[in-house]
Fold these 3 entries.
Entry 1:
Amino acid sequence: MDLLIHEDDPFVGNAGGVKGGMVYVDPVVIDSAVARASGDVRVVPGGSACNTMVGIGQLGGTARFVGKCGAGPMGRLFRDDLLRQHVEPMLFTSTTPTGRVLSIITPDAQRSMLTDLGASAELQPSEAGGPCYDNAAIVHIEGYLLFNQDLIVAVMEAARKAGARISLDLASYTVVEAAGELLHGLVHRYVDILIANEDEALAYTGIDEEQEALARMAAQADVAVLKVGARGSVIGCGNYRCAIAPHGDGSAVDTTGAGDLWASGFFFGLLNGFSLMDSGNLASRCGHAVCQQVGANIPEENWTSIRYRVEEEWRKNG
């Protein structure tokens, strides 16, 4: 579950966070930070890969989310919300409470995260096996799973055996820095679609220049995506490159879920026969929409507008 608060930069540091990054903490650290919050705390179902699946479900695609939650009210709320948003929940349960992420949103719309994995840390390789990926075209994995080497390898092996393409979102530059050689080995062996923002791409490639960093990523995966914030994104596939303009004026209330919903639009486009350019444009539209409110849930009226644009694209392509 995501806990969302609005605070200033000093609050991030005092809470033990890293500006724009993610830090794993004990539950008491989150409780302490929430107790010091200057305003209301909004609680919503979240998590990077979960947000992406919700976006695909809202676009009209078929989506399944695999994870582990507590058996209490928070876990039930999580499951019910997935069903409401057209996502099949494949959730294992535990007596450990459901995991929480405290997302501290600063005035520049950046979010800094304190994460207590809770029950999600107990997902076992034997649970996340083959049946989870039946009929899957793409298995999308968030980079945070790199902290559990046995689990991420089991997921990638099972996804490959199921015949699915594997997508990996690098998630946070702090994750990339901590993963080291494990990450590079997994990308080389398994990953078909590699997604990163500027900080993550720099941490992964060691290259500051965008086009060179993208080229390095595209040499290691069939499709590489480099998101450059308010300037949009760049997609690489072999020697092909396409620049995706940002949707709207680049303004943001909160960037929570921006990359997650970008991925929703991109995957939905790819799996429905859109070109890389058109898939990127749909991704940009979804990413922009989620930045116009607090949290990673796009209001239904905005989804209606996005789905209308998708139907226009289908008509254009026959």
Entry 2:
Amino acid sequence: MMESSLAIDVQNLHKSFDGKKVVDDVSIQVPRGQIYGFLGPNGSGKTTTIRLICGLLTPDQGSGTCLGLDIRHNAERIRQRVGYMTQKFSYWEDLSIRENLAFVANMYDLDHIDERIHQSLENLGLVERQHQLAGTLSGGWKQRLALAACILHNPDLLLLDEPTAGVDPQSRREFWDEIHRLASQGLTVLVSTHYMDEAERCHAIIYIADGKIMTKGTVSEVIAQAALVTWIVRGPGLIQLQSELLKLSAVDHVAPFGDSLHVSGARENELARALHPWMNDERFQWTRVEATLEDAFIHYMLKAQAGRGG
């Protein structure tokens, strides 16, 4: 039988805890060798969905496959072929980097352990620190250790749950360089993130809120689907102007960016009429620009809040 071109292919997943629906009719398809970003506010269902995909949780409803294996009936086999990096650092702080990797290798009952460890240390720049205790590492180095441990058994799929939260920009960039190197070798990656620059480095993104997928596609497709019109305004008294503009029903959101405001709305003509008095005010300079992913992100978040009456 020909192997599917999809690493993840799940349909209509549902999951509730204590009567609260956390994942609501979620369907996701991720092609092999691609990097997909998973975006959404805290509590939106990202982590639960990731755990359903890799067999750590069983869906209340829905079906699908991960790496061609049924998520309901082959959970153990799926976990053997997946690397899962959790939000919280979950390795042993009283062991060195090398000792942690050796422990993980033995848990997986891997062969050629010394070779695997050496290769992981080399790939992630950990050779010089291999004898340092994990508990003494900074956030960026702990992140490298966690990634090294996740790929030690040569998984086919990497699931990353907000892997760079609290990590400095240089470490984040180096981490993403490594992710793209791994993907170029055929590894599939699903990564949840709050950082727009990271989302823009993905081949495609999925936006989830309140357990429902609101949009998915390439970054340009997701921005286009939001159908936002965005203006930049500069001038004096921008904080006061922001409070005035937020009163307008045609304005979806207003966000300060340095010495300017980004003003966005989904109804072009209504927005133009609403902004007309301020556009004729000589104190302000207005420029229409392309909407950004952050504009779209805020738009979908506000849309979800309106949907639940928030």
Entry 3:
Amino acid sequence: MNFTHTRQFRALILVLLLQAGAYYAVAFRDERTPPSNPLSTFPPIIDSWRMTKDAPIEKEVQDILKADDILSREYVNTSRGMPAYLFIAYFKTQRYGQAPHSPKNCLPGAGFEPVEDSTLPIQVADWPAPIVVNKFVTARGYEKSVTLYWYQSHNRVIASEYWAKFWLVADAVRYRRSDTSLVKVVVPVANNDIPSATAAGVEFAQSLFPSLLTHLPR
């Protein structure tokens, strides 16, 4: 089959066109960069979740990500003892090629094979409707994990990479803004119990969401 006739190729072309549109939408205009709180001030205790350690990102990885602010931490549920890893990458602008890297590309590159790729609605506080996030289950040998992730900016929570690019162009034209954030929650799967790991990830996402609203621009 000719690759140029596949749906993946058409999707790739669409993403490239949207990225080009976003660049030209702000390239010759002053961009508005809203204020944000440093992610280092993100609370170490969130409901029943307590931070156990920071997980610094290596400089080589930071150079690839090109994020303006990064948070990488491990939290543990004090009542159940279940760990969860929180990663947030904030980008003030996507004007010069900076953009979130999809976990769907990064995790397989680290040796994790995809087991499930779906979306999941989550009811959260201080939001008018359930947010829809990506649920990505991966395996490396006997090791499995559940990853919940989404893109957050301009009073939006977006699961789809393609819709994130669409709104990037729209907001660059209307508001002269291209800032965005990637939020990722990873929960290891114990005893091959994916539903329990998913439930823990959902609970953690619900607990941390109000703090996201105070740290990320709206």
